[in-house]
Amino acid sequence: MSWQVSARIARRELRGGLRGFRIFLACLALGVAAIAAVGTVRASIQAGLEREGAALLGGDAEAQFTYRFAREAELAWMESVAEAVSETVDFRSMAVVPRAEGAERALTQVKAVDDLYPLVGAVRLDPDMPLAEAFAGDGTLPGGVMQRTLTDRLALSPGETFRLGDQEFVLSAILDSYPDNSGGGFGLGPRTMVRTEDLAGSGLIQEGTLFDTQYRLDLPEGADLAALEAEARRLWRDAGLRWRDARAGAPGIAEFVDRLGAFLILVGLSGLAVGGVGVSAAVRAYLAGKTEVIATLKTLGAPRAVIFQTYFLQIGALAVLGIALGLALGASVPLLLAPVIEARLPIPAVFALYPGPLLEAALYGTLAAAAFTLWPLARAEEVRAATLFRDALSGGSTLPRARYLVATGLLVATLLGAASAFSRTVELTLWTAGGIAGALALLALAAGLARVLARRSGRAARGRPALRLALGAIGARGGEATSVVLSLGLGLSVLAGIGQIDGNIRQSITTDLPAVAPSYFFVDIQPGQIDGFRERVETDPAVSRVDSAPMLRGIITRINGLPAMEAAGGHWVVQGDRGVTYSETLPAEAELTAGEWWPEGYDGPPLVSFAAEEAAEIGLSLGDEITVNILGRDITATIASFREVDFETAGIGFILSMNPAALAGAPHSWISTVYAERTAEAAIVRDIAEAYPNVTAIRVGDAIERVMELLAGISAATRYGAAATLLTGFLVLIGAAAAGERSRIYESAVLKTLGASRGRILGSFALRSLLLGLAAGGVALAAGIAGGWAVSTFVMETDYAVIWPNALAIILGGMAATLAAGLMFALRPLAARPARVLRARE
């Protein structure tokens, strides 16, 4: 019965409109919209990957081998289950264009294909022509196609010639797009596409050199992909075969999008937490304005339950409206911007309304709204009628009854549980929640400290009326210090943390790494070329250091007889192929942490030295056995030692180093790093390329640029998320300023009566805003520095240094935001007439 009465009262009160709830609605809608938009974009990309899985992969399924071609038995099995099998070869090489003034060279990612390519999808060329016609060349030389970025870099036009290894090609067309572009992983150079058979005399493809082969399968209609995958893994798992199919045509991209989307949703939740501060303040202010109504209801005998239910229903109805607005905004913005987003995405996306992300955002919004409004609603229930007539919510106990505290705790726990379940990153969710809670607690303490310091600093401000007035307003009980510092501070904390993390990663890559990194990596050096290569670089006075090592690639398939993925818990070392080297003696720069190196000339059972840090993560011990598949051959070796391997120097580092006899007869190449003066690099690359056309030079700076491009995209996405959080905080700030407008009008009237000029009053308002912004920015900076240090140290495992330009920008931004919000609501107080205001207060 009480709910019916409460509903009737609530419905009548809501006839008064949404006055006082605009900030409530804006905060809730913006937080929900951010989460819904991120979820919609993520779902659109996932739908695109699923729909275009076969095109992304280049076939219904793919079998991939590392640095070798499929053997007869493997190829026969693929041909028995597929209607067609297309072979492609992927590797890096140097594209060389002869010029009268000297050859032009650029690193390129080569895709060598057969006549069946592509099984699925189509290649688009400029000028438009069939791929077979492009490969036909000019009648004397075979043809090839290149991506435009590479032709621009080489100043190469269709009809001109270029060289790969020892083979010359004529450029037939520009490669605009090809169907399996998104599934190829990280490439260091633009793409060149030629026919495999035309590379027969190039010297680039032979066992031991660095290349991958992919066999795309065109399967019969209705083929059971899961069953085929199981059979392929059963038959060829220990032979180094890796399987993918159209169910996940680009699994790396899908996982990356999923992880990034989950992270951005957690950033969105921090924005929802900021909005929650504004929601709570709006509810408190609304209830304070309902003093007479609540007092009248209590006087007429309304029980506490009716009071609570009345305003619970009102706030609930407005929360539903805010969530609905947020869902509409979050769903419509990605759809409206779909052409722009699709143009910038290198992968397909199907933009539509997806119920999953919208339901997730609605759940977050509902739980957050309930958690942040329950407390002020419960306090209103506790206040006595006599107290309500005097002061809205200042009476009664500070804490609500225990059942409301428990309910609030359950709501927060449910919100965290939902975030953990949806993001599938429990640890990250809990750390994010802990960071938000810690930042809110720190900001609340800072607001309290600011009020205390303001009250105690009044004497120090003698002779400075504007400053003294500002300090008095900050220190006043019930002022806006808490709401300003909380709302702005949390948004700035998120932005400060992201700025510090991003700055440290960029600094680590662009500043620290080049100081110790080699100038170039040279790969695919054949055993017969290594002596000549060393003679050229080691006798160059501009070269300070040369490191060389034989290199093979292998896949760890078993650990102590168990499947490697199972024994290592899915560690990254067993996910894919790893570099393997051999050495007769312990390298001079190597440092053993446990065990012993094999004796010189050892030819007993295979032994291996394993990277110490990775071994500890996997749980390996001396004497354990690991099976490594190298070029289709299983080698089971006993772990004889552990050694330190530092990958941060960008030098040569191998997880696995074996005794030479264990790899005797295995085709392999050499890898070398050359540390040289910048002015000598071009001559070294030119001489090596002319002497050994098959050798590929990879400039470390180019690799760093590719990583920086990837980081720029991630950083931009996180900054957009943080910007949404900051915008929510600014809305809360506006709400706090609007709520304090009445008190400022009264304050201005009193000051005018005492002779204060408008300029002095405006100065006190501005100083108040600047000081509160400084407090919020200072605390946010401390929280951001602490958060950045934690992520850099424990997650990224990199050195950390405060990025002071980003830090100062946060403080200045906080001061500017509070000043803008404060001055926005300073015009009416300055224009108020003292007589009218003071007479109304009598």
From TrEMBL:
Source taxon at top rank: Bacteria
Keywords per UniProt: Cell membrane, Membrane, Transmembrane, Transmembrane helix
One Pfam short name: FtsX
Sequence ranges assigned to domain ABC3 transporter permease C-terminal in this UniProt record: 266-379, 723-828
Primary location class: membrane
Chain segments annotated as transmembrane: 260-287, 308-341, 361-378, 404-422, 428-454, 770-791, 803-827
Record membrane topology: Multi-pass membrane protein
Protein name: FtsX-like permease family protein
Location within or outside the cell: Cell membrane
Keyword Cell membrane among record annotations: yes
GO (cellular component) term, any one: plasma membrane
